[in-house]
Amino acid sequence: MRIVVALGGNALLHRGERPDADVQRTNIVRVATAIAALAHDHELVVTYGNAPQLDLLAAQSTADAALTAPYPLDLLGAQTQGMIGTLLMRTLHDVLPGRRVVTLVTHTRVRVDDPAFEHPTELVGPLYPEKPARFLVAKYGWHMAEDRHGWRRVVPAPSPERILEADTVRVLLETGAVVVCAGGGGVPVVADWATGALRGVDAVVDKDLGAARLAEDVKADFLLVLTNVPNIYADYGTLDQRPVLDVTPTELRGAHYPEESMGPKAEAAARFVENTGRLAAIGALDAAYEIVHGRSGTLVRPDLLIA
């Protein structure tokens, strides 16, 4: 079976942890151990979140007096793919002796007319007091939004249309390689309508939607979205909270999960299942093997067709 694994943003850095390299090296061992068992029996593609790392690089780039302007987000995203990708590659290499592991920097084509470019919503970078935030808006034309204890930059999050290296991923899978790619949803690019030339855009792609797009492009049999809870919950955080163990895309969308947490994961699973007729699941990292074998997590299956 061909499986695309989407690692949550908490895989390398847990909430409240310092973004030190040693912290991430330690956490990545748990990640590799959790998914290694799947690689013994299945073709495996591993994608991952990059929000903490992207925020760190964005803060450093903005504060760097040697630059006339901060690096654009497409280039910063590519840097995170290299950094996280090498950590995953080395650790998977160690826990899967004799197995080829390949890391790719991948690009995600988005539409130049995607409505997201007119309505930026994704928070990136550090918190700023109001005065520095206004200065950055005036200097770079950024959009800012209030976020709890300060202001943060908001950027577009266009929908992924295609993973440009999908054909390469398929070839690598056919050689038996475990492929690490599409970090942070991939580097967002647009194509010139006349020449096809690619241009990076100052935006981000949702990591889970990027994973769903990749899973569809590489003709995966299963999309596995891993997070820090054992399954989806209805009425999460209330006295009526209860696990949802089996669900369809229509039911997922009808539940209206929060955009800042389970919403993108639910939408990614729904898109993949709707577009392919195959299966997806959402659950905890440490239960990855059990989820694929139906013993844990929330299974997302196609809506029943009524003749």
Compact description:
The protein is 37% helix and 23% strand. The chain has 307 residues and is α/β, with parallel strands linked by helices.
Tell me what the structure shows.
The chain is α/β, with parallel strands linked by helices. The chain has helices at residues 21-41, 51-63, 73-95, 130-140, 166-174, 207-217, 249-255, 263-276, 288-292; strands at 2-7, 43-48, 101-103, 107-109, 122-128, 143-147, 150-155, 162-163, 178-180, 187-191, 198-200, 222-227, 232-234, 242-244, 246-247, 279-284, 298-300. The strands form four sheets. It has an eight-stranded mixed sheet with strand order 3-9-2-1-12-16-17-15, with helices on both faces. The protein has a four-stranded mixed sheet with strand order 8-4-10-11. Strands 5-7-6 form a three-stranded antiparallel sheet. Helix 1 (21-41) packs across helix 3, helix 2 (51-63) packs across helix 3 and helix 6 runs parallel beside helix 8. The longest helix is centred in the first third of the chain and has 23 residues, at 73-95.
Class computed from helices, strands and strand pairing: alpha/beta
Helix segment tally: 9
Main sheet properties: 8 strands, mixed
Order of helices and strands: EHEHHEEEHEEEHEEEHEEEEHHEHE
Q: Which stretches are low in confidence, meaning pLDDT under 50 for 5 or more residues running?
A: none
- Shape summary: globular
Q: How much helix, percentage-wise, in residues?
A: 25-40%
Q: How would you state the average pLDDT, rounded?
A: 93
Q: Using DSSP, what is the number of strands?
A: 17
- Span from first to last CA? 30 Å
Q: Kindly provide the radius of gyration, computed on alpha-carbon positions and rounded to a whole number of angstroms.
A: 19 Å
- Enumerate the strands of the largest sheet in spatial order, edge to edge or round the barrel: 3-9-2-1-12-16-17-15
Strand content: 15-25%
